[in-house]
Amino acid sequence: MNKVVEFQQVTKAYGDVTAVKDISFTMEPGKIYGLLGRNGAGKTTIMHMITAQLFASSGEVNVFGETPYENNRVLSKLCFIKESQKYPDNFRVIDVLKVAAALYTDWDQAYAETLMRDFSLPHTRRVKKLSRGMLSSLGIIVGLASRAPLTLFDEPYLGLDAVARGIFYDRLIEDYAEHPRTIILSTHLIDEASRMLEHVIVIDQGKLILDEEADSIRGRAFTVVGPKSSVEPYAADREVIHRETFGGFVSLTVMGNLYGDDRKQAEALGLEIAPVSLQQLIVHLTNDKSGRKAEVAQ
Ligand SMILES: Nc1ncnc2c1ncn2[C@@H]1O[C@H](COP(=O)(O)OP(=O)(O)OP(=O)(O)O)[C@@H](O)[C@H]1O
């Protein structure tokens, strides 16, 4: 299958700061990727190399099978929504939409208008007069209505309230189902975004430490709940990554195969089983692989 993004042993240094260290990964068409990691992990640097705003110090970056640098065939297929997008001072919301309509080949104006209503964004308000959350909504509208074959959202929801974030997730999932494309979402809100993510790439201190399908990560652990007397023997020779006690009951998150014997044994003991959050697992896996106590989410 043709790859949308290919990184081969890519390193990026800013002077003596090496932000990205010898990273290799590929991204396929028609998938939603989560690019996750702590502050300063190197996520934005990776997105800037994909979108040809930064050169790699070494290694090879290919997008749609070609180098993206000064390559209009590639760049015309990309839409990059940054955390703090800047617009000319005199621009109104409607001017941003006009520029986007001219820029993106697959732009859908009717869809943009629907999204404008969903996010209650006023057409004629000057962009510099928008609230922080409204500015984020504008970026989200441009990103979704661009329908670009590769759309990148870099922490797109600064200042957005929970309702607006919910609208973003819902619209993205609905629209993606009708118009499959590759989406890269960089976020700290892993639990919130996890229902949309199909594949997860975790960066820690510039290194790639996890590159896996979200479902396969989720299936690696689960939570068992029950009376202490049943839960503790079950947990005795297992890896416990989280523990909560309430009265005589215990809830443990254990590493194990959610779809296999580990689950059957727990069921046989009458323990309740619940899926574990992607965030909790990633925090755990990050700790393991980086050899330090990391906290992926804020
Ligand atoms: N222009 C620059 N000059 C020097 N160092 C930089 C520059 N841009 C980024 N860095 C450094 O590179 C590292 C990675 O930064 P990057 O912005 O890619 O991280 P990030 O994962 O996107 O972080 P966040 O989640 O906080 O946005 C950090 O140590 C940062 O300080």
Automatic annotation (TrEMBL):
Keywords: ATP-binding, Nucleotide-binding, Transport
Family matches, as Pfam families: ABC_tran
Highest taxon above the source species: Bacteria
InterPro entries listed in its UniProt record: AAA+_ATPase, ABC_transporter-like_ATP-bd, ABC_Transporter_VariousFunc, P-loop_NTPase
SMART domains per UniProt: AAA
Residue ranges constituting the ABC transporter domain according to the UniProt record: 5-230
UniProt-recorded Gene Ontology molecular function terms: ATP binding; ATP hydrolysis activity
Signal sequence region: none
UniProt xrefs under CDD domains: ABC_DR_subfamily_A
Keyword NADP attributed: no
Official protein name in the record: ABC transporter ATP-binding protein
Species: Paenibacillus ginsengarvi
